[in-house]
Amino acid sequence: MKTILINTGTELLLGDVQDAHLAFIAKEIFPLGLRIEEQRTVPDGRGIRSALTDLFPRAEIVFVTGGLGPTTDDVTREITAELLRLKLVSDERVMTAILQRFAKRGIKFTERVSRQAYVPEGAEVFLNENGTAPGLYLRANINPPFHSPHLFLLPGPPRELQPMFRESVIPKLRSMASTSPLFDRRMYRIAKMGESLVEQAIGEKVLAIPGIELGYCARPGEVDVRIIGDPAAVERADTIIRSLLGPAIFSSNDETLEEVVVKLLVERKETLALAESCTGGLLADRITDVPGASAVFVAGYIVYANESKMDVLQVDSALMERHGAVSETVARAMAEGARMRAKTTYALSTTGIAGPSGGSPEKPVGTVFIALAAAGSKTTARQLFFPSDRETFKQLTAQAALDLLRKTLIKGSGD
Amino acid sequence: MKTILINTGTELLLGDVQDAHLAFIAKEIFPLGLRIEEQRTVPDGRGIRSALTDLFPRAEIVFVTGGLGPTTDDVTREITAELLRLKLVSDERVMTAILQRFAKRGIKFTERVSRQAYVPEGAEVFLNENGTAPGLYLRANINPPFHSPHLFLLPGPPRELQPMFRESVIPKLRSMASTSPLFDRRMYRIAKMGESLVEQAIGEKVLAIPGIELGYCARPGEVDVRIIGDPAAVERADTIIRSLLGPAIFSSNDETLEEVVVKLLVERKETLALAESCTGGLLADRITDVPGASAVFVAGYIVYANESKMDVLQVDSALMERHGAVSETVARAMAEGARMRAKTTYALSTTGIAGPSGGSPEKPVGTVFIALAAAGSKTTARQLFFPSDRETFKQLTAQAALDLLRKTLIKGSGD
After folding, report:
1. What is this model's ipTM?
2. Among residues A46, A98, A133, B218, which is most buried (max CB within 10 A)?
3. Contact B338, B369 (CB under 8 A)
4. Architecture of domain A184-251
5. Which DSSP state fits A209?
6. Cβ pair A12:B19 closer than 8 A
7. CATH number of the domain at B257-409, please?
8. B43 in contact with A at a CB cutoff of 8 Å?
9. Predicted confidence band of residue B179 (pLDDT cuts 50, 70, 90)
10. Which of 3.40.190.10, 3.90.1150.10, 3.40.50.300, 3.40.980.10 is the CATH number of A3-176?
11. Domain positions in chain B
12. What is the pLDDT of residues B43-74, one digit of tens each?
């Protein structure tokens, strides 16, 4: 079924906020055999009108996000009703839910909020457990002779849309879509290997399989390889990709590198500490995004100032003076100091020059050292060079550090 | 000039990666008086063909991102040449740049990479300093009688596109766009106040000004208010908004909360330490994203395990036993311990239950305490409740902690 997503929001087109709905919805509907074939972003107000008029004749399912809020720039509900010549009627259930929500949180009820209780006649209402605007479903051709697709109007904030999508939209789609998708899909995530090298390794052999769709996506420190096709073709491609890329693949089920690392640590009942200088907390933030991380993550030491490297991690001040705070020696001392302090199996450290200032001819911006201290073995260290903007530098360094730990963990498992 | 952005990439439509180009480009072109009026995402391959055919007659400027890489799914350059009936010719400068890049980094040159040196005849080339695929500019109506808009083909990875956009695309646009935009724009960022309350405070009065466009955007812990209009109207609206919202506005120039906090600390020559439990490094990560943060940020202690709260921050184990690790008492002790250890002016702490597990009837998931210790004054603490998913919980908590510090800093300035 031809499926299209329309995001409304002048804030998106002005760049004040980034869309998260496309990625979320795409992943949710894929298992039902549905793919977003096109996505559009339109401004608040009249923009949605011309997009709907343009897409109604050729779409079978349309998702619209945003424009259901209490403020005057929220008009999705009104324009939809107008296009389909449906009356807006006040919905008792929605009004009650809004009043209860406000009472529970002690928020003052404002007149404008009641606009959100108006729905196009005949629409099915999805109550919003995380906000006030309800979601709305209008079945295909709801008001003949007007031709219209299945239409889902959903709230803009991701934390309102996402639970609603899983609880209400997915069951509705399941009832209308073919239940057995004819295609299968796999994604392989590879750290620290360039896109063209990955293609050189697998491209020709995978594309020789009839009916396989092969795609690549590069992001800082990572290449994702995607295959789509009928289940038999995907199975054949899977064998080829695994045999050629082997342990370079850190995930084949959409897990992030931090999820993989936490899972490996949990399985092995081992623990981790972090000593971060140039990554400034990004490593810890990524690890603690994983539910259950507290079982393996003990402590992180963000030793930005040299004094705190000495104070918290017992890094020798003479070492720092001789080699500089950004050096292999200091990276090793940081990792070992963190492991001792937190009494963990492993400790990862990072020290480098994120820029834009702070570089020198011998150690230009982008220079970085990472180290991994491990119980019962020698500390490993790596020098890397990531000359890029500050945030990319932090991401590339965090990625390299996590992959160093992952490779050590899987090598250990194989012993 | 009617400006449209097309993002190519099956990975975007499958949800494997999130677009960052719309936000970036929109912000870059606004000062030139240009706004993206519509954005579309299309799959790799033929998708770009029908979007270009559809938009050529009605757009004046089209940006296309992605599909210029070395792999077989990258066909933007070929399809553009085909539509405009232009030959693809090998460009010497591009080829030399690619060879040099590979030599410098010691990467093996693969045959496929040379595809990237082919450009439609007559196109202007923007060399790529951060990758191999060059950017391309095809002037409007480049091959009469075919009607075509100004066409910019740009590489997909943000760290390649962004510097190229600033260095090459902006000067080109400046030469073609009207240089004095007739409208001005302001954005006000407000922490810890709901969208409908913000509108109730300012909506009616601002909208009474003729010719003003008013928009709101809510995200975790923040509401952004946006006004656009002619400079005089914007000036009048600005006065109203500032007088009604006052210090609730943390930024009116697109700065993030962490940028504002770092700037205030730098101005006051004061320093900061962090003691994070439930935010797990997010606060430190945000602070260290700000260039120059090292002047004010000394250390962060991510004390996930109770042992490390005691070890690093000297939190009394009896206190933790009596009140629990998630308590106001422990939040205060953490902040004070961090400030003592790092010898800073301020220390912020967070302790809470991020979930999904770990909640209890008295302290359900979402319970959180933050505290701020400051030299020469009493430690401040707040209890908050953010029942949401793990990442939103971390964001809301970090936002509340940073805003607590900001309010203390501006109050101090006023003394």
Report:
1. 0.72
2. A133
3. no
4. 2-Layer Sandwich (3.30)
5. S
6. no
7. 3.90.950.20
8. yes
9. low
10. 3.40.980.10
11. 3-176, 184-251, 257-409
12. 987 779 989 998 898 899 999 999 887 777 78
